Amino acid sequence: MPRHNKQTEPTDDEIELVSKSQMKRDSAALQAMGEALIPLDKKLLQSLNLPERLYNALIDAKKITANGAVARQKQYIGKWMRHVDPAPIQELLDSIAGVSDRHNAWLHQLERQRDKLVDDPKALEAFIAEFPQADVQQLRQLIRNALKEREQQRPPKAFRELFQLLKQYQPEPALPGAHLDTAEEDEA
Fold first, then answer.
1. Are 39 and 61 in contact (CB under 8 A)?
2. Percentage of the chain surpassing pLDDT 90?
3. Could you give the angle at the alpha carbon of 72 between the alpha carbons of 92 and 38, nearest 5°?
4. Whole-prediction pTM value?
5. How far apart are the first and last CA of the chain?
6. How far from the centroid of its chain's Cα atoms is residue 82's Cα?
7. How far is Cα 75 from Cα 57, in angstroms, rounded to an integer?
8. In terms of Cα–Cα distance, which of 18, 16, 52, 48 is closest to 33?
């Protein structure tokens, strides 16, 4: 008679029971997340390092126009969404929607940097030291114009342009955990 090793058997506390309804809700949420990826451009999709089949399904979904085929394609995308980590995808969708805390923190950092550049002449030297590839002449011109706009109480055109320039030098940090889940992809 075989012996059962009690250390390997899960106890009642370790077993997590999930109802069939909850599994359906989770699956529907993943499918909805996958549907939200369809309108994104190829460059953003590639940045997520999605499994090849999911990536191709998203690209194919852009081409499909028949209603029944669109619904089937969305279900297919939902199937492949179960094989990836949804956290980086959700973070990308949140940053696109403007609700990501990390994205907001990055924008606030750029705003503080811009304000410092306009208010403190020594801040430009520190910025140039940190980003030697920066176009110094363009930076000085935008700072000068922003100060003029402020004095003359004109719309802040140069102030906004300075912000856009800072975005070029300090790109948004990459999403953590955006990786390919090859083990699960090979099983499917």
1. no
2. 15
3. 25
4. 0.47
5. 37
6. 19
7. 10
8. 48
Q: Which residues contact 59 (CB under 8 A, 6 or more apart)?
A: 42, 45
For residue range 20-46, list pLDDT tens digits in order.
Answer: 898 888 888 888 888 888 888 888 888
Chain-centroid distance, C-alpha 47: 9
Tell me how far apart the alpha carbons of residues 82 and 30 are, in angstroms, rounded to a whole number.
7
- Alpha carbon distances (Å) from 127 to 38, 50, 133: 39, 36, 10
The token pair that represents 8 in the structure block: 């390997």
Token couple for 182:
């090859």
Write the CB contacts of 73 (distance below 8 Å, at least 6 apart in sequence). 57, 60, 61, 64
Rounded to 5 degrees, φ, ψ at 52 are: -60, -40
Structural tokens at position 28: 């529907």
Q: How far apart are CA 154 and CA 163, in angstroms?
A: 17
| Domains defined along the chain, listed by start | 20-99 (1.10.60.30), 101-169 (1.10.60.30)
Q: What are the φ/ψ torsions at residue 95 (nearest 5 degrees)?
A: -65, -35
